[in-house]
Design a protein that fits this description.
Blueprint lengths: L6 H12 L3 H9 L3 H9 L3 H9 L3 H10 L2 H8 L4 H8 L5 H10 L2 H9 L4 H11 L6 H4 L5 E4 L4 H12 L8 E4 L5 E5 L1 H6 L17 E2 L4 H10 L4 E5 L5 E6 H19 L12 H28 L1 H6 L7 H24 L7 H30 L3 H31 L10 H26 L1
Parallel strand pairs: 1-2, 4-5
Antiparallel strand pairs: 2-3, 5-6
Helix pairs in contact: 3-5, 7-9, 8-10, 14-15, 16-21, 18-20, 18-21, 19-20, 20-21
Length: 452
């Protein structure tokens, strides 16, 4: 059964490994699922991990390996020969997981591992999957599935399904094809169970089937499965021939990875990194956007220096500089986050002009509300009426600009095939900070001339 893996539990396991308490470890491992065992291995050193894996049945050990963090799995795989990888790991994985694992191996080892796989049909299936680009339906699919021919009778169908099901861990759907392997529909297990052995599959199957092409984007696959509440989705080639299936667990893994990637981009991290990575890799992933923010800060300081005389004459304007910059960044991030979310979910509708017009109206309402509150506050606490009017008008203008800018930038990035999640990171906040300060001082020069 599943257990909470506490720090105390980890220490207990490490002590048992050190004292070679095999019986205790076997009992403990039998009570855990592969993801629980993977969580333990992620938190112990490589020698302890290899010892623990050696106690597990090869089929379960292969499943545990696929649940590990990528860097931990990479360390463990380095100690296995090509033969061990092929016989002890690859042979115990579905084709999609096997292809993912082989993709992580160095280029000079991949071909050697494939050549040592005993089942040549499995080797060919894995090689086929390696051909598809990352983040496509083909890269997510598995070749293992259950299919029947439309010309079969029920008795033949059941016999063939039994033979095929032995190679498939979970049978979600039974697909119906013709002699050319073209996908025609789905066969309900319920209808199959109550049918006569002499019934024809053509009389039982449902021709209403949703499928995807092998080169469709993985984002589209996730969207289709979410929209139609599917747990499995067949994949076909350009001629409509059935070549694989995608299951919900593979899509969830992809969505989780994309969410992590987008979160890192929004946080100003340009590479996929983990806290356990080496210092240099962590630095590489974070330095670029820090330099962008630094450059933006330098530009911001140049904007302020250009208005040095204005600040020296009206030093009270400096009081509200942090507020203007912060509000510009926050409004821009809000607007861009909504657009990025809509693009990620494929729920973005309407033209660019309609979206900008709607955001302009939202920005106007929010800007008026915030500006009025600031006007009331500054009227009582600011040193002059001119400053009150300046910061209020400037805040309204900044909010309007940041709303429009935060909407436009992710759409522009998306149009040029750049991940729009970049728009919610340091780029949008830094840009809005600079422009916000410029607007503030420009309006200040105008307003002080009117009310000063």
């Amino acid at each position: 059964m599943s257990q909470l893996i506490t720090k105390e539990k980890i220490e207990e396991i490490r002590e048992a490994i050190e004292n070679n308490q095999v019986d205790f470890l076997l009992t403990m491992l039998n009570e855990l699922y592969p993801p629980d065992i993977a969580e333990i291995i992620n938190r112990i050193d490589a020698n302890e991990a290899r010892y623990l894996l050696s106690l597990i049945h090869k089929e379960e050990a292969a499943e545990v390996l696929m649940e590990l963090e990528e860097d931990v799995r990479e360390d463990l795989l380095r100690f296995l020969s090509s033969t061990e990888l092929a016989h002890d790991v690859i042979d115990n994985l579905d084709s999609d997981d096997a292809a993912d694992l082989i993709n992580e191996l160095p280029g000079n080892i991949r071909q050697d591992v494939l050549s040592k796989i005993i089942d040549r049909n499995q080797a060919q299936n894995i090689a086929d999957l390696l051909f598809y680009p990352e983040n496509t339906a083909g890269s997510l699919m598995a070749k293992e599935l259950v299919k029947v021919n439309i010309d079969w009778h029920v008795v033949t169908c059941i016999r063939e399904m039994r033979a095929q099901a032995a190679q498939v861990d979970k049978v979600y759907q039974v697909y119906v094809v013709n002699d050319s392997n073209v996908l025609l529909g789905l066969l309900s297990l319920e209808r199959l169970l109550i049918a006569s052995p002499r019934d024809h599959i053509s009389e039982l199957y449902d021709p209403d089937v949703i499928s995807v092409k092998a080169y469709q984007k993985a984002e589209e696959v996730a969207s289709i499965m979410k929209k139609y509440d599917l747990i499995a989705l067949p994949v076909v080639d350009e001629l409509g021939r059935l070549i694989g299936r995608i299951t919900i667990d593979d899509v969830l893994d992809f969505v989780h990875e994309e969410a992590e990637k987008d979160y890192q981009l929004m946080s100003g991290i340009s590479h996929d990194i983990e806290t356990s990575d080496e210092v240099w890799k962590l630095t590489q992933g974070r330095l670029f956007w820090l330099l962008v923010a630094l450059f933006g800060g330098i530009l911001g300081s140049r904007v302020i220096s250009n208005y040095e005389n204005q600040i020296s004459i009206y030093p009270e304007m400096a009081f509200f500089m942090p507020l203007i910059a912060a509000m510009a960044g926050n409004v821009g991030v809000q607007s861009s986050a909504l657009i990025v979310q809509a693009l990620a979910n494929n729920s973005f509708t309407g033209s660019l002009m309609n979206k900008l017009g709607k955001e302009l109206l939202v920005g106007l309402i929010n800007g008026l509300a915030c500006s009025l509150i600031l006007l009331v506050y500054s009227y009582f606490f600011a040193p002059s009426f001119a400053l009150s009017m300046t910061v209020s008008v400037a805040l309204l203008t900044v909010i309007l600009f940041a709303s429009m800018f935060g909407t436009f930038v992710p759409l522009a990035l998306h149009r040029f095939k750049i991940d729009p999640a970049l728009a919610t990171g340091p780029f949008i906040t830094t840009s809005n900070d600079i422009v916000g300060l410029f607007i503030y001082f420009s309006i200040g020069r105008l307003m002080y001339g009117m009310f000063g």
